[in-house]
Amino acid sequence: MRVTRLTILFCLFISTVGSAQDAPAPNKAAQPPSNIFGLTEDKTSLPIIMVREFPFVAATVNGVPGKLMFDTMKREALSLNDHKAPLKGGNVGVVRGLYPEVAAVDLDGGLSYRSIPNVFGEDLSFMEETITPDFLGFIGYDFYRGYLFKLDYKGNRITSYRRTKARRQSKDYLFGERVVAVVGFTTYKFPNRPIVPVTIGGVNFIGTFGTGMEGAVYMTKATQASLTEQRLLTPVPDRGDSFYDITGISLTPGLKAAVSGIRVFNKPAPDLPALTGTAEPNIIQFGYAFLRQYKTVWDFSESRIYLLTP
């Protein structure tokens, strides 16, 4: 009888230990919401929603649900559509006002912020009319400053990685990926606006990158005639007289890229001197029309963009 009781107690002990080992670990204590709108974790993944060519992150601002555009061409971490988001204390009547505090912003993916100081807001109701009726504003460069990010249009996700010495060695953001090309870039006045030298059919261009646009090409009539003659520039059927397919784009040695259905203008690009510091008349903007062909990793600290197979 004694042996039986010992056996039962031993079995209960083993069962208890096994159950404890199999049980999921308790959740890490939730971090209190930050008042600085930005990234803090070593790695953060946010789901995105595509509206036409624009990547959005679902969000709630002061209790109002909607979407924030992830736009690398915007410098501020957060700028809001004060026509949609309920904001208080701004400079009423000005085109662009500074709001002393935004009470609450929550992002799909689990990031929460409270009492964010000094946020710019303006009436962007035209974005509600032309892009999406729940347009809340923009997420910009200062949100992910100090991080590199991977943009995956096909997987509908942006994954950010803190830039560290260990990561510079490991390059874990490239694990399992196939690198098509690495494009080195420079910046002029704006650290969030990559600039690259480009050649198409022996003609020099300045290339710029941005997620908040479809993309466009600005070229002289002489350049357009030359590329048309070389059959590198062909009109897209049934798209009027301004949409073209372009081939033979050289961004880096060994890569000849292409872009389909991009708008071509025979006029100077807007804000060119402020952006590039040059009077180059031929400009190509690499937006969604180009970026959708790849996964991309944007590493601003190392001044490079990785083009990966999607």
Q: Can you describe what's shown?
A:
This protein is of the alpha+beta class and 310 residues long. It folds into two domains: 43-161, Cathepsin D, subunit A, domain 1 (Beta Barrel), CATH 2.40.70; 178-308, Beta Barrel (Cathepsin D, subunit A, domain 1). 16% of the residues lie in helices and 40% in strands. It contains six helices and 20 strands. The strands form three sheets. It has a six-stranded antiparallel beta sheet, with no helix packed on it. Strand 12 and strand 13 form a beta hairpin. It is globular, with a radius of gyration of 25 Å.
Any descriptors?
Cathepsin D, subunit A, domain 1; alpha+beta; six-stranded antiparallel beta sheet; 310 residues; disordered N terminus; six-stranded mixed barrel; 20 strands; single chain; 6 helices
Strand order of the largest sheet: 1-10-9-19-20-11
Radius of gyration: 25 Å
Unreliable stretches covering 5 or more consecutive residues = 1-29
What is the 3D form? globular
Number of domains: 2
Helix content: 10-25%
Largest sheet: 6 strands, antiparallel
Category by helix and strand content: alpha+beta
CATH architecture of the largest domain: Beta Barrel
H and E order: HEEEEEEEHEEEHEEEEHEEEHEHEE
The average pLDDT score comes to 88
